[in-house]
Design a protein that fits this description.
The chain is an alpha/beta fold. The protein is built from 11 helices and 15 strands. It has one domain: Aldolase class I (TIM Barrel, Alpha-Beta Barrel), CATH 3.20.20.70. Strands 3-4-8-9-10-11-14-15 form an 8-stranded parallel beta barrel, surrounded by 6 helices. A 5-stranded mixed barrel has the order 5-6-12-13-7. It binds flavin mononucleotide.
Length: 366
Amino acid sequence: MNKSLQKALARELHPTYDVRKSYEWNYRNGPLFKGPYPPPRKIRKRVRLLDFELNSPLGIAAGPLLNSDWIRVYAKLGFDLLSYKTVRTRSRSSNPKPNCVFVETRGPLTDDRLNETLQTKSRPPTRLREISITNSFGVPSRNPSVWQEDVQRAKRYLDKGQVLIVSTLGSAEYYPDTPSFIKDFAQSAAKAREAGADIVELDLSCPNSNAAEGMIYLDPNFSGAISKAAKAELGAVPLFIKLGNFWKREQFESVVKANAPHVNGIIGINTVKMTVLDENMNPAIPGRPQSGVCGAGIKPSGLQFVRWLYETRKMNRYDFVIIGVGGIMTPDDIGEFLSIGIDAVEVATAAMWDPYLAYRYYRSHS
Ligand SMILES: Cc1cc2nc3c(=O)[nH]c(=O)nc-3n(C[C@H](O)[C@H](O)[C@H](O)COP(=O)(O)O)c2cc1C
């Protein structure tokens, strides 16, 4: 290994997204990765995911990859399931900054702690394991003509064994009644297919949105109707849905049952909605008494979700693939999630601070 890569790997944090700046700034100027890139990998065994053969079972969840520039960099860094941040059928600007704020979780947020009020961190973390954030972007989107062209560009950056997921969302603020909202959700999926997405993912679980769509994933009938309508638009292109964490097992089972006939994959979890206050006891994200928490602290919720999903898939002989997300920060975390028997894992927060995670995982597992 050359000296500069060795030196880079010795450093734990390499932020690629500047949390002090706006989403728009990061969209235009990011990612801040300066290199060096790891050497090409020797792929001994590919990983099957539906009809795809991946170089590894590691990807990046919808969020950190704001556009094709981000996808180009992270594909070169060895992440193999790359998710294009959630887009809509109409343009929407981002919520103002701050969009990401560091949160003090004081260890893992176990089930019994999810009702706690959390505080922001007084100092930026220096270790990956200490990074939990709360984020709120409002799911910004370019116009479809812009993001569709950019998705095509992103696809050209992928190597053999890499796959592009495009995450989409319906917009309740423009389509408030249920039938037209469902139609808009399906249209967003259709536009992602048109653009050349290998897989289309529906964000059914964004906890930050102002609109009714925020908690769709908790409603079996509503989420099932959206999945069904989207699947009808996709033909042979696989459909994934992104769910959030559940407090009640029965509710979880009903939602999975309602969606299973329509989907090829289930991803979870999204950020966990909690109360986060700053040092003046104001909401960490101005105007949002509750906001989504992600990163190291939510690992117990992420693990519980995939354990439940694995069990219910087995018991009911469902054939969807399972992608685990939530609190995965290190190669050991990746191994722990995969050992449950799920098909692949994705990271969001870790990728923003450790773009070398894919390479670290490759080195420790090959
Ligand atoms: C900066 C950022 C932006 C995000 N944006 C989206 C999004 O657009 N759509 C989505 O489904 N999830 C979004 N998420 C949630 C992640 O996909 C993921 O589910 C969550 O962060 C938990 O994973 P983590 O603990 O590895 O961060 C975002 C997360 C982060 C950190």
